[in-house]
Amino acid sequence: MERDRFVRLVEEVLDSLPEQFRERIHNLAVLVEDHPPGDVARSRPGLVLGIFQGVPATQKSVFDLSHGPNSVVLYQKNIEAVCSSDAEIRHEVRQTVLHELGHYFGMDEEQLKDV
Predict the structure, then answer these.
(1) How confident is the model at residue 62, as a pLDDT?
(2) Beta carbons of 51 and 93 less than 8 angstroms apart
(3) Which residues contact residue 68 at a Cβ distance below 8 angstroms, ignoring those fewer than 6 apart?
(4) Which one of 26, 36, 62, 83 has the fewest CB atoms closer than 10 angstroms to its CB?
């Protein structure tokens, strides 16, 4: 899938979030890369589809100095590798974005297993 089309899928997922969630997202960059860096790939079991990098909203303090935006990174080639159609890619992008936003909002893997 062309990168522009993949990015549009990500944008559609973000735009479809309920307003009460969108208004609580601050200082967050959502990025698309082909593959995770080697250290990320080695540190996690299985194929890494996405990752949240930063401090979860539940752990932030008004006294913390910002070190730039938190980020959610989606790994396009890994997502495509586990999908066999555009419909599956669309579904996996949505699931991955929601999962990583869950981490942004402070949820752990156990809480996210049903997302």
Answers:
(1) 61
(2) no
(3) none
(4) 62
Per-residue pLDDT, 81 = 96
Per-residue confidence (pLDDT) for residue 41, from 0 to 100: 81
Query: How many CB atoms are located within 10 Å of the residue 94 CB?
Result: 15
Query: What is the mean pLDDT for each group of 10 consecutive residues in the chain (115 residues)?
Result: 96 92 90 92 88 83 68 97 96 94 84 70
Q: How far apart are CA 80 and CA 29, in angstroms?
A: 21
Q: How confident is the model at residue 108, as a pLDDT? A: 80
| Residue 107 φ/ψ, nearest 5 degrees | -85, 145
CA nearest to 5, candidates 102, 96, 90, 101: 90
The token pair that represents 68 in the structure block: 């730039």
Q: Which residues contact 93 (CB under 8 A, 6 or more apart)?
A: 6, 9, 10, 13, 74, 79
Sign of CA dihedral 65, 66, 67, 73: positive
